[in-house]
Write a structure and sequence with these properties.
Blueprint lengths: L2 E5 L5 H10 L3 E5 L15 E3 L6 H11 L3 E3 L4 H14 L7 H8 L1 H10 L16 H4 L6 E5 L9 E3 L2 H14 L5 E5 L4 E10 L2 E12 L8 E5 L5 H7 L1 H11 L4 E9 L5 E7 L11 H5 L3 H10 L19 E9 L3 E2 L2 E3 L1 H4 L5 E5 L6 E2 L4 E9 L2 H14 L1 E3 L7 E2 L4 H13 L2
Parallel strand pairs: 1-2, 1-4, 2-3
Antiparallel strand pairs: 5-6, 5-7, 8-9, 8-11, 9-10, 10-13, 11-12, 13-18, 13-20, 14-17, 15-19, 16-18
Length: 425
């Protein structure tokens, strides 16, 4: 009997469990949380109350229960535990520690990019003593960020020396890595390219635009969408280097993504990579747009089913006519959730799905992901109509009865990008 062990519940965990069950696989979910707080347990065939960090205990239990595959959702910690547990058990993991290192260490990743001849933001060296000769070399504004954290954690935008020193000390408190990145601030639009990988062959299958609501923070992207207008320029100028980089870091199977920015000088600059499912989940609508199912791709590989080169989708050459997005519901303040309303209504809309992160009764901080809405549409007008329906229906209330969701409403901008993309087909 095939037995799949899921480490914890995070975004995409439930989708992996559902797919595995549809293929006749016996599913087990483990962590230290009760099922009400680790909801993949509610749909699995069995669950364990073993923390995902207790690898010795899990290894012994997996051997006793004849576990045949181990996976996780969009959790970096659990991905690292998955890799180690698979190594101990002799099971498959598409992501290797060697390749994962470059997802975790932004500094080493930039070195690989430079070797490949790809553009990256200029670095500045700062020592803990904040020497004046070092500070005087910096051209502001700059970005200060840890090398080992994701999800915008520890990222600061600095316009003077005082802000730089404060941001540097902030990263030191957050990060376990002594290396800290101080780099020139880029100014422009951001994307990340999504890659399907099999037997060392790498295909760029979706260029996702990252859009923020006007007036919100520079890196608070509400909308990650296949609606974009720069596919041809991207493929011509930076995609060959990115594929070279992914091969250099050791990506041979699974999926990966690389974040880029088109700076004010009209050049693409590489920012970072991820060798995992992204937490804003635009991949959830890819099966409808161009027929690629990331959940199936990763789960089948973990089960021992080979993904071959001939199974890879065609590389994206132009903007897609049908479109979709992962719509992140950010919080506009800290608080405690007293109610979440409208979920049943929005998921009745054709092509709309919802993926919770925080639930009723849980406390949250400002500018944190509360949940993600997946939306598929035949065209951009329809996409905007569905997002407007979501905006008018869903709410997350705090203890004061305030709706704390940051909503994306910049629809005319989105439609203009779509129009330009269609003109270039």
């Amino acid at each position: 009997m095939e037995k799949l062990l899921m480490l914890g519940t995070s975004l995409a965990s439930e989708e992996i469990v559902k797919y595995a069950k549809s293929q006749g696989v016996y599913t087990i979910v483990t962590d230290y949380l009760e099922p009400e707080k680790s909801t993949a347990k509610l749909i699995s065939d069995e669950y364990w109350m073993i923390s995902t960090g207790e690898l010795d205990v899990l290894e012994k239990k997996c051997r006793e229960e004849n576990i045949t595959s181990v996976m996780c959702g969009c959790s970096e910690f659990n991905l690292e535990m998955t890799m180690e547990l698979c190594k101990r058990l002799g099971l498959r993991s598409y992501c290797t520690p060697e390749a994962w290192h470059y997802s975790k260490d932004k500094s080493d990743f930039k070195k690989i990019c430079k070797k490949a001849g790809a553009s990256v933001a200029t670095d500045y060296y700062i020592s803990d003593g904040f020497a004046e000769d070092e500070l005087n070399l910096i051209v502001f504004p700059v970005v200060v960020k840890p090398v080992d954290l994701s999800g915008n954690r520890g990222v600061s935008f600095c316009y003077n020396k005082e802000q730089l020193i404060e941001a540097y000390e902030y990263v030191k408190r957050l990060s376990k890595n002594p290396k800290i990145i101080v780099e020139r601030m880029l100014h422009g639009r951001e994307w990340y390219s999504y890659y399907a990988i099999a037997q060392g062959e790498i295909r760029q299958i979706a260029l996702n635009a990252m859009e923020k609501q006007p007036g919100e923070l520079k890196n608070l992207y509400s909308f990650t969408t296949t609606v974009t207008d720069n596919i041809e320029k991207f493929n011509r100028e930076i995609n060959p280097a990115i594929k070279k980089i992914l091969k250099a870091v050791g990506c041979r199977e699974g999926i990966a993504w690389v974040q880029v920015m088109l700076d004010a000088d009209d050049k693409f600059y590489i920012i970072e990579m991820g060798y995992r499912l992204p937490g804003d989940m635009p991949f959830i609508v890819y099966p409808d747009i161009f027929g690629f199912d990331s959940i199936k791709w990763l789960t089948d590989y973990a089960r021992g089913i080979n993904n071959t080169i001939d199974m890879l989708p065609d590389e994206q050459e132009h903007a897609y006519k049908s479109c979709g997005c992962g719509y992140t519901l950010w919080s506009n303040k800290a608080g405690k959730i007293t109610s979440i309303n409208g979920i049943n209504e929005i998921t009745k809309i054709l092509g709309v799905s919802y993926y919770p992160i925080y639930r009723v009764g849980e406390e949250f901080t400002k500018h944190i992901q509360l949940g993600v809405v997946g939306v598929y549409a035949d065209n951009c007008d329809e996409l905007c109509e569905k997002i407007a329906q979501v905006n008018n229906t869903i709410s997350v209330l705090n203890e004061e009865g305030e709706d704390v969701i940051i909503r994306y409403t910049n629809f005319e901008y989105l439609k203009e990008n779509y129009r330009r993309g269609m003109e270039r087909r």
